[in-house]
Amino acid sequence: MRVTRVGGIVLVLMLASCGAVKPAPPGEYPQTGSAQAGPAAGTPVAPAVTPLSPPSPPPPTVATQGPIAAVASAERPTAPSMPAPASQAAAKAGAPATKAPTKVPAALAPAAQQPKKDVIAQATQKAAPPLDLTSLETRLKETEAIGVMTKIALKNQVDDLLDQFRAFYAGKLKTTLAELRRPYDLLVLKVLSLLQDSDPSLAAAIVASREAIWGILSDPVKFAKFAST
Amino acid sequence: MSRRVTVCALMTWMAAFFSAPSLAADDAATRKDLTAVIALHGLPCGEVVSVKTQGDNDHIATCKDGNRYHVFLNSAGRVVAEKQ
Questions:
Q1: Is A2–B37 a contact, with Cβ atoms under 8 angstroms apart?
Q2: Over the stretch A206-228, which tens digit does the pLDDT of each residue have?
Q3: Do B40 and A154 touch (CB under 8 A)?
Q4: Is the CB of residue B34 less than 8 Å away from at least one CB of chain A?
Q5: Which of A88, A133, A166, A200 has a 20 to 30 A CA-CA distance from A97?
Q6: CA atoms of A155 and A149, how far apart (whole Å)
Q7: How far is B44 from chain A (nearest CA, A)?
Q8: What are the 10-residue block averages of pLDDT along chain B, 84 residues in total?
């Protein structure tokens, strides 16, 4: 009788444990990530330099990219300031309810979306906060999206890049700013790829600050001030 | 006496049962961390499938593709990934 009771308890515990630990499916993060990375997260996603009438990229292409959309948008600093809304629309594109707008004639759709895009671009430009490197640094240090070893490795690479800039401005490194832009972009992409799934708001903040940071790095006076602090 | 033994065994089993997921979570976090480190160094790996911790910030990572790396923090404060 006692054995039956103990057996019953063990069985209940085993059944309970089946439902306890259930990791989220990998496909779940990118959708929420791209959704949170948008203006809804409260941080502007638009790069600092944003044209008023950007070329509209084909939404279906972005739609299929999922988590890469944020990185892809980061690759194009002068691209339209709509990476997150585009990815949001992309995320919803699979839903039957949102398939209806795609039936609108192609000639009408861009015309209808253009003013809306301009309004959002202007709004994000107005709402763009000033670059706060200290805040970004703190958030990067405190985020749980990146492991300790990865954070140290990233810091090593940031230091290496800063050394390259120092050598460049000291005339010790024979290269151009355009060539230094490449490792900078690569490093930003590495950080974004690490953050976009687990900390999309920080990823969005970095995307928003990307051009401003480059503005500091590419200006010898600003860089000297930054390096001295 | 036998009731005491049964209760003790049940408690031990429950402790092991409920602590296992947290250990697994730690292990998963380390694997993810080392996967990112190896990728940051541009080394082929794919995904770290097992980790042998040798000390603080000192691990041997085995990758899905069979590669093994010694990932550690050297005295200069740099994270190093050495192919084994």
A1: no
A2: 999 999 999 999 999 999 888 77
A3: yes
A4: yes
A5: A200
A6: 10
A7: 16
A8: 70 61 68 94 94 92 95 94 93
Residue B37 touches chain A, beta carbons under 8 Å: yes
Name the 3-class secondary structure at B34: helix
Residue A167 CB neighbours (<10 A) = 13
Residue of A9, A13, A149, A151 to mutate when probing chain B, most B C-beta within 10 A: A149
Instruction: Give phi and psi for B7, each to the nearest 5.
Output: -65, -40
A81 CB-side CA count, 13 A: 30
pLDDT in tens, A75-115: 444 433 344 444 444 344 444 444 444 444 444 444 445 55
- Radius of gyration in angstroms for the set of CA atoms belonging to chain B, rounded to a whole number: 18
